[in-house]
Structures are given as structure tokens and as C-alpha cells.
Specification:
single chain; mainly alpha; Arc Repressor Mutant, subunit A; about 60% helix; DNA-binding
Length: about 325
DNA sequence: AAGTTGAGCAACCGCACGGAA
DNA sequence: TTTCCGTGCGGTTGCTCAACT
């Protein structure tokens, strides 16, 4: 017997409009993520449940950072891809802020090509992570090294998940991730998550206000406005560091009020907001959103600095070979 | 200025898995 | 044990836009 189709006929497809985003976010804020099957009916969205979940996890979920991958992140992705293969969700769990879809896209459109290029000739800045060009090793050595790396990763994870170690590893001058984790610990999980979610949607709407549907009517559809808002959102990283983006005064006020009523969210002033407040991995934020089971250790509490250090330590690769 | 091409990215599709009944 | 349901995941598609001719 076949499965029921996940989507009814007549569901809307294609890019999400800001209005739909608002509906979804406000619903999730009220009910929490999960039970996606009921989301379309409860919200009145003409969207497939999968589509709602995807939209939430890849775009509206709190703590998402978009575009502008750092060199550090690049290296981590390359390392992790070499270790884990195309297990993007697993890779994403090691990269706070990033979604598996984002990483997958980045890999497929950029990193893979760069690696292929560097492998097929000239030396590259990235290509020699596991490339024999700079570290001439045989296939067998490479496999051994990979196995060692996996073992080290396991060891690091085991150590990381040990509660005692975790405390000692959180040094005052630890990286921002650890700091963020600390802030998460000390904050009511749901509130910070949803505030951040509202933050996301508010940013999106700010972009939308710049290019409202009627204004963007040169192409006369809401898709364009959505894409514009996507683009504006994608530029948040730089925009937030350079200053608050300008918005039409009237529209801004109106939307501030809208947001106050919608989310109970006071401020649209991003200059006062730390960027995407919670630094959570995919799994971590899922944990955050769903529920926190007392006494359990989530990956959110993992000392990423340790893993990052290991993942980013290029020199270790060469050193590992000497172990054999 | 108009057409073409390629990169980037959001979203869709289908399969797999785990839990509940 | 089997079936069904909800969800997660990875591959792929299709749209948009910028660069190039």
C-alpha cells in the first residue's frame, strides 16, 4: 500500500512571501516547531507541511547566518566533508548558524569546484587539505590518516560530552561560540529562540519595506519582493556591522507596531542587537526549540572550540602521517 | 541595448528512518 | 510483527541576477 501524499493537491509552491513567513513564524512562536502536518491547516497556509518545515529550518529558524562563509568555515566544511562525506546535516551540526542546505549549496557551487580545480593542476589554497600535492601520501596512508582523524573526532566528542570536561573547557577567553553557548545556558531557551526568530522575520520585513510589492511592481509579483527581501537579509551580516539599514520612516513605525502586537517584540533596532543572538548548531537549535530535557547534555553545550581547533589545524594532517 | 551564459540559492522531490498504534 | 505517520536528509530542479559577448 502506498503512502499518503505528503501534500494535498493545490498547495502553493515556489518562493515564500513575507506574509506567509509572518504567519508561519507567529504560529511557531505560539505553538513551537513540530507537528508540521497540522501547520498548514492551522495556519491556513496553502503550503505543504514539508514546505513549512523546510522554510522554518532553512530560513526562519533562529540563529541562521547566511552567505559570507569565512575561511575558517570553509576549512571546516572541507575537513568535515572529507571525513563524513555528503552528510550535510552532520556537517551543519558542527557549524553554528549554518544550515545543511546552505552548506550543501556552498559546497556544490563553490568549494567542490575550487577543490577540483586545485586538484587538477595548480596548487590551491584549499585543495591541499587532503591533496597529495603538498602532502604526498599513498592511498593507504590517506585512509589510515582518515581513520585516525575519525578516531580523534570520536575522542574529542567523547571528551566534549563529558560534563566535567565541559566546565573546564569553557575558559573566560574562549571563542565567541562558547560565549554564545554560555549565554544560551543562562537564558530561557524558548524566549531567546523565538525572539531571534522574530528578529529574523523583522529583518526580512525591513528589506521588504525597502521594496514593497507595489514598489517592486516593475516585475509585478510578490516573488520579486520576496527575493529582494532575501537579498537584503543575505546582506545583513555586513549591513549590521556597518550600521542600521535605512528604512522609510513611516513604514518602519508601522511595522514596529505590527511586530509589537504580533510578537511582543519591542525593538527593530538591530544596531543594539547582537547578530542573530543564539549561536546554535542545527541540532542544537532544534533542541532549543523543542524542549530541554533536564540532565541531558545537548550538542549545544559542546565545546566547539576544541573541535574547531582540531578541524582547522592543517598542520595536524601532516603530523598525523607520522603516527604510522 | 539585447541576448547568452553561468553562478548562486531557495525550494521541491523522493527515500529512509524511528516511533507509535 | 506489521503498518502508518511524522520527520529528517540528500539530490535535484528551476528561478533570478550579474557578467559577458
Amino acid at each position: 500500500m502506498g503512502r499518503l501524499p505528503c501534500c494535498d493537491k493545490g498547495v502553493k509552491k515556489g518562493p515564500w512571501t513575507p506574509e506567509e513567513d509572518i504567519i508561519l513564524v507567529s504560529y511557531i512562536q505560539e505553538h513551537g516547531p513540530g507537528n508540521w502536518r497540522t501547520v498548514p491547516t492551522n495556519t491556513g497556509l496553502c503550503r505543504c507541511s514539508k514546505s513549512c518545515r523546510l522554510r522554518w529550518t532553512n530560513y526562519l529558524r533562529p540563529g541562521i547566518k547566511r552567505g559570507n562563509f569565512t575561511k575558517q568555515e570553509e576549512k571546516m566544511i572541507i575537513h568535515l566533508q572529507a571525513l563524513l562525506g555528503n552528510r550535510w546535516a552532520a556537517i551543519a551540526s558542527y557549524l553554528p548558524h549554518r544550515t545543511d542546505n546552505d552548506i550543501k549549496n556552498y559546497w556544490n557551487t563553490y568549494l567542490k569546484k575550487r577543490l577540483e580545480k586545485s586538484e587538477s593542476g595548480s596548487e590551491g589554497t584549499l585543495g591541499n587539505v587532503y591533496n597529495s600535492a603538498s602532502n604526498p601520501v599513498t592511498k593507504g596512508q590517506w585512509e589510515k590518516r582518515l581513520q585516525t582523524d575519525i578516531n580523534m573526532a570520536k575522542k574529542a566528542l567523547t571528551e566534549a560530552l563529558s560534563p566535567k570536561k565541559m566546565l573546564s573547557l569553557h575558559e573566560p577567553n574562549d571563542d565567541s561560540i562558547s560565549n554564545d553557548i554560555g549565554s544560551i545556558k543562562s537564558t530561557t531557551p524558548n524566549s531567546i529562540c523565538y525572539a531571534s526568530s522574530a528578529d529574523n522575520i523583522a529583518r526580512l520585513l525591513k528589506g521588504w519595506m525597502k521594496n514593497p510589492p507595489n514598489k517592486a511592481s516593475s516585475k509585478s509579483n510578490s516573488i520579486v519582493s520576496t527575493q529582494n527581501s532575501f537579498n537584503n537579509l543575505a546582506g545583513i551580516d555586513t549591513a549590521s556591522s556597518e550600521g542600521t539599514p535605512s528604512v522609510g520612516a513611516k513604514g518602519s513605525v508601522e511595522f514596529s507596531e505590527t511586530f509589537k502586537s504580533l510578537f511582543g517584540y519591542e525593538s527593530l533596532d538591530y544596531s543594539s542587537n547582537s547578530e542573530f543572538s543564539p549561536s546554535l548548531s542545527h541540532e542544537a537549535s532544534t533542541l532549543c526549540q523543542d524542549e530541554r530535557k533536564p540532565g541531558t547534555t545537548s550538542i549545544a553545550e559542546m565545546p566547539f572550540s576544541l573541535l574547531e581547533k582540531w578541524l582547522l589545524d592543517d598542520t595536524k594532517i601532516g603530523a598525523d602521517a607520522t603516527l604510522f
